[in-house]
User: Fold this.
Amino acid sequence: MLEKSHRHVSCETCGARKDSLFGSFCEADSSNLNEHKTCNYFKKNQPLFIEGSNPRGVFCLNEGKVKIFTRGEEGKEQIIHIAKPGEIVGFRAMFSGEAYKVAATTLEECNICFINKADFLNMVDTNPVLRNGIMRELSKELADRATFITNMAQKSVRERLAFALVLLDDIYSQEMINLTREDLANFVGTATETLIRLLKEFKDDHLIETHARKIEILDKQGLMNLAGV
Amino acid sequence: MLEKSHRHVSCETCGARKDSLFGSFCEADSSNLNEHKTCNYFKKNQPLFIEGSNPRGVFCLNEGKVKIFTRGEEGKEQIIHIAKPGEIVGFRAMFSGEAYKVAATTLEECNICFINKADFLNMVDTNPVLRNGIMRELSKELADRATFITNMAQKSVRERLAFALVLLDDIYSQEMINLTREDLANFVGTATETLIRLLKEFKDDHLIETHARKIEILDKQGLMNLAGV
DNA sequence: CGAGCGATTGAAAAGACTCAACCACCGTGG
DNA sequence: CCACGGTGGTTGAGTCTTTTCAATCGCTCG
Assistant:
């Protein structure tokens, strides 16, 4: 469990690192990275950065989950992505030379390391493997977002919810999906009331079960069929 | 006007190049590029590449426009982007190591140069300015697509159409917007019939005028207000 | 001149949203 | 220990947007 305070993690032994963009780092690279990062504890619902602010560096998730979102006209959040341990958050804005167009906020208590912009860019410049990994990651996400757009445009809310639950099941892997109904609605792109009604239908169809706010997936294949994947 | 056949363009003198990712190329770079590219004529509605195929290189638009799209379940197109002269199409898939997740098809007669994958990647490897330009471009598009997703999720069809017309007015700059109603509907993310009805409303409100299929923007600011930008 | 595609219109149905009220859980402070 | 306030979750009813289906029109191409 997470201590309610700053906890120092060493990059050399960090379990999340091997799944990350830094996964290929040799020992020297890792120890260099370790010297340039700081390690921070974040409370639940604490922002990493907000829209319009200027990027100062990147965040490497060691423990906990973070939502990435934009806001529509009336301030309603649209969640674009939910990042899990091992993911680097905020590196896109390192290259665009612009302020953040998205915001990031913790969904749980988190342990997150921070790497300064200059240090990060320096690593990218000097490490071709890291650089290629980043370019691959950027490209893949671009493709993911094209699919996301198509889903939003062409699928019904029911289909999108089924799709979202399948995605979230992977992100939450061992645990159960644990989001407020509002966050889930903002991920699916619908009203909270509509979301709740559909969840009930899914329960009636034995696709899921709810335990308070947590959602247990009973029939992943059924959800995938419903989502049309 | 475009000749109905292959037309050779030299990179050194290409007008579209200076707006492109190759815009910063010095003379030596340009002439190197020129030696590695081929120049091709494309008919209207001719595919550059389709979903699922393997990337062989990148396409540099010299003249004409190209739609980039994915397909939903029933094969319905969702247009993600419309590329204009100066844009490089298909470079995302160069880095992902995967097959194309999107497809590209010409909307008009086009003159398009092709650069082989190996040559392109070699340029990226050896030219830091080009590389940084690409990383900046990838990052910006990622942000654009986040906005796109939010628009799809939160705006009404009317707002999305207004927004789309403003975007298209920039893309078509000097000319009038010239798309089939179906393509426009697939860009906005709606049914063709709905699109036509809304266009009529916009005409009644003196926001636009139609000349056969072409759309003339009369009140861009009015459209922007409607779109909520 | 006819075929066929793209554009347009009408009517009905469905999906989703809004608004309003109510419930349930949780932590706080008395 | 319990009442209180607040947030998050749930339900109902009515409305509106958007889609669907069907039919018609009009232009272009062979």
